[in-house]
Design goal:
By secondary structure, this protein is an alpha+beta fold. It has a single domain, classed as Cytochrome p450 (Orthogonal Bundle). A hairpin with a 2-residue loop joins β6 and β7. Its cofactor is heme. It comes from Parasteatoda tepidariorum (Common house spider). Belongs to the cytochrome P450 family. Keywords: Endoplasmic reticulum, Heme, Iron, Membrane, Metal-binding, Microsome, Monooxygenase, Oxidoreductase, Transmembrane, Transmembrane helix.
């Protein structure tokens, strides 16, 4: 039976029955362990983890073959997992027609309440928050600043306006959500993402941090349920929606009135699941992303100088950068891509589940197998990136676009890419360029260049020295 079940699978290591590599893979060394296996078995290999069959995709070519060429064979796992639990019924975990309908709607609303505010109106919350950050740093006059909390507050304001409207949710409520989500993130370790299926319901309660995560998940859910109910009580179908929730309620009402059967997908449960992801990732995750980029320019002053020189050359000092400047600032754009390529956090991520048995590269990929996006190996693929161990933004600046390497895949590949990628990267670009335009970033005196442990504490101290002293 064992031989028949595994016949035709990609090669891979022999491991413990049921437990598989769950006894071997560790959070801090997972990518290195998989790297050793890849050197032995190739970029596509298989292994089991707590009863689930995983197919490692360790090259850009492999990821494209699975998730682009054979995209119709894969979807989000319907089995119980850490993602399905915390983002239950949200757009990120939906499948089939509900996913198509909800994703299209969400993208439209992000353009309406997110990206269009970035492009079209300088007085909108994003630009206001950036200017407030500049004023805040100027007032510090080069003194040490804990930047993560400040960025979190600013991202908080941006998201409140985008998703809820200024009066749709209080600043204190979003702050409470962020604090609760930090406990959930602490439970979202790399190896916990691997647990998938019915037995996971019994395994997770035995894991450290589970009950704390559950307690804080309920806090987030309660707050958002109250916010949604408040919006429903004040909803007017004849008014133009002013935020994401109102747009969702109007879309549901309009589809019901037209007799559109897809109206059934617009449930309160799906709305809350989507909001949990948007609020959590749209504040804490974006703030940490910006802090990561800021830390990197502090660690590499030569790159900071190049970025500043490009900003002055293209934008000047008289006005703030806008999103329209992005295409004119190739070094900064390439620099952002290179940071994403070399950043090791969540270096391996479970991808999608095979929904019908297929054959890829001559290997049998059975129904129920889950792909593993090995970003560490993909981003260090020497066939794609020359000398991948070196930090080199210029690799993305080749004038011949056909010779440029593939962009990093931190936000996913194909149809299931993160719908917030554009908005997230726009915020990072505008915060980073505007801050560097006005300040030289350094560490406080006596501080040492450290690693990214601040991601665990959520704190990063920097000094922002004004480039031109005010009179």
């Amino acid at each position: 039976y064992y031989y028949k079940r595994n016949k035709g699978l990609p090669p891979g290591p022999v491991s413990f029955p049921f437990f598989g590599y769950s006894l071997i893979l560790k959070d801090d060394t997972c990518h290195r362990t998989l790297e050793r296996l890849q050197k032995k078995y190739g970029d596509v290999f298989s292994f089991t983890f707590a009863g689930t069959l995983y197919i490692n995709m360790g090259s850009m070519k492999a990821v494209q073959e699975f998730h682009l060429t054979h995209a119709e064979c894969f979807q989000r796992s319907n089995d119980f997992s850490i993602i399905s639990y915390f983002f239950n019924s949200g757009v990120s975990v939906a499948n089939g027609e509900p996913w198509k309908v909800m994703r299209k709607f969400a993208l439209q609303q992000l353009r309406e309440y997110g990206m269009t505010t970035v492009k079209d109106n300088m007085s909108e919350p994003l630009y206001d928050s950036i200017q407030e950050t500049i004023d805040f740093l100027k007032a510090k006059k080069g003194e040490p600043v804990e930047i993560v909390q400040h960025l979190t507050n600013k991202c908080n304001n941006i998201l409140r306006s985008t998703m809820f409207g200024q009066s749709g949710i209080t600043e204190e409520q979003v702050k409470e959500i962020n604090e609760a989500y930090a406990h959930i993130v602490a439970f979202m370790s790399i190896t916990n993402f691997f647990y998938n299926g019915f037995l996971t319901r019994f395994i997770f309660p035995l894991k450290p941090g589970y009950w704390t995560a559950m307690k804080n998940y309920k806090i987030i859910k309660r707050i958002l349920e109250n916010v949604v109910n408040e919006h429903k009580s004040m909803f007017n179908k004849d008014e133009h929606p002013k935020n994401f929730i109102d747009a969702y309620l109007k879309e549901r009402n309009d589809r019901h009135c037209k007799g559109d059967p897809t109206a059934k997908y617009f449930t309160d449960k799906a709305l809350i699941g989507t909001l949990i992801q948007f609020v959590s990732d749209g504040v804490l995750s974006v703030a940490l992303f910006i802090a990561i980029f800021m830390k990197h320019v502090v660690d590499h002053q030569d790159h900071q100088d190049k970025i500043y020189a490009e900003i002055v050359d293209v934008v000047g000092r008289e006005r703030a950068p806008t999103i329209e400047d992005k295409s004119k600032l190739p070094y900064i754009t390439a620099y952002m891509h290179e940071i994403l390529r070399t950043f090791e956090s969540f270096s391996v991520v479970p991808g999608q589940q095979c929904i019908k048995e297929t054959v890829i590269r001559g290997y049998r990929i059975p129904k129920g197998a889950i792909t593993l996006v090995n970003m560490w190996m993909c981003h260090n693929d020497p066939e794609i990136y020359s000398e991948p161990e070196k930090f080199n933004p210029s690799r993305f600046m080749c004038e011949d676009k056909s010779k440029r390497p593939d962009l990093p895949i931190n936000f996913g590949v194909g149809r299931r890419t993160c719908i917030g990628e554009g908005y997230t990267m726009s915020q990072i670009f505008l915060f980073l360029t505007t801050i560097i335009q006005n300040f030289k970033l350094t560490y406080p005196e006596g501080s040492e260049i450290g690693n990214y442990e601040f991601l665990l504490s959520g704190k990063l101290d920097i000094c922002a020295i004004p480039r031109i002293e005010e009179n």
